[in-house]
Amino acid sequence: MGWKKVRTMAKADRCRGRGDWLKKDNIRDYATEAFRFYAACGRLTAEQLKQKVYDEIYTASKKEFYRSGNGQHSDATARAVMKAEDAVREMQAEFEDILAVEKTMLQLNTHQRKAVEIVYFTEPEKDLEKGDISDRVHKAELEIPASEQSIYNWLKKARRTFAEERGLRISKKIR
Predict the structure, then answer these.
(1) Which of 77, 56, 55 is nearest to 65 (CA)?
(2) H helix intervals, the chain
(3) CA dist 148 → 7, 16, 40, 116, 125 (Å)
(4) Rounded to the nearest 5°, which phi and psi values hold at 67?
(5) Which is nearest to 111 in space by CA: 163, 150, 156?
(6) Could you tell me the end-to-end alpha-carbon distance of the chain, in angstroms, rounded to an integer?
(7) Does 15 have pLDDT greater than 70?
(8) Strand partners, 73
(9) Cα Rg for the chain, rounded, in angstroms?
(10) What would the pLDDT profile of 62-77 be if each residue is shown by its tens digit?
(11) Which of 9, 12, 93, 98 has its CA 20 to 30 A from that of 143?
């Protein structure tokens, strides 16, 4: 083994631990988007969002007028109920995400919750661009106050808690 490789390995050993909080984990993107979806829905609970879906479909169905094949009026209410049930069934994953986010937020302390709100709940309907997260982390760093590393650690804790609540695989190891 050459001296350059030994020197590089020694430098890597010294730096180990620094920057670990910036590394990507296997659930980061999914959890981040779940938090942002929750914020984009106005922080409604899963039950409130379900009710909103039902209400929107029932309201739309009042405007529709159906006829059956023999020219008689069909039961518009029954059709609306079936349509609403289908919509809720299609959104089941979103409801489970919201439920997991709600449970996660309850498990975080005040500072951790504030960090999640500043970083993930800001402009949730807008696509994330390069540097948005780090800019928001810096903003959280000033508002809470806490170190950058603490903010990243809290975000990681929130993502991992979300994954556990959602039933997602967290580690890459097979047990």
Answers:
(1) 77
(2) 3-15, 28-40, 46-63, 76-90, 92-107, 110-120, 132-143, 148-166
(3) 29, 17, 25, 13, 25
(4) -125, 140
(5) 150
(6) 35
(7) no
(8) 67
(9) 23
(10) 766 555 555 545 566 7
(11) 98
